[in-house]
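We now fix the convention by which a protein and its fold are recorded. Here is one such record, which you should read through line by line:

>
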Amino acid sequence: MVNKLEIETYLKSLLKDYEDEDGVIRAEYMDSFEFVQIMLTIEDYFDIEFDDKLLDMEIFENVDYVISCIYEMINCKENSHECV
């Protein structure tokens, strides 16, 4: 089972090039191709699939929200039930 700290560590390493000087992820620092590549990388790494409502670059500005979404998707998959 993956915990939230592992997810956070992975995301921060993946998104480090998109942080401002305060360490905040900025959607405007990535283009659409980079965004798609990041989403696919995360999906492959955690063996999940993002819902269409999460396919928005600006969600990465709230890393805690992304971590929670990934954590929920992993738990749903591991518990073999459908999540909304």
In short: Helices lie at 4-15, 32-46, 63-78. The two ends are 20 Å apart (CA to CA). The chain is about 50% helix and 0% strand. The chain has a mean pLDDT of 89.
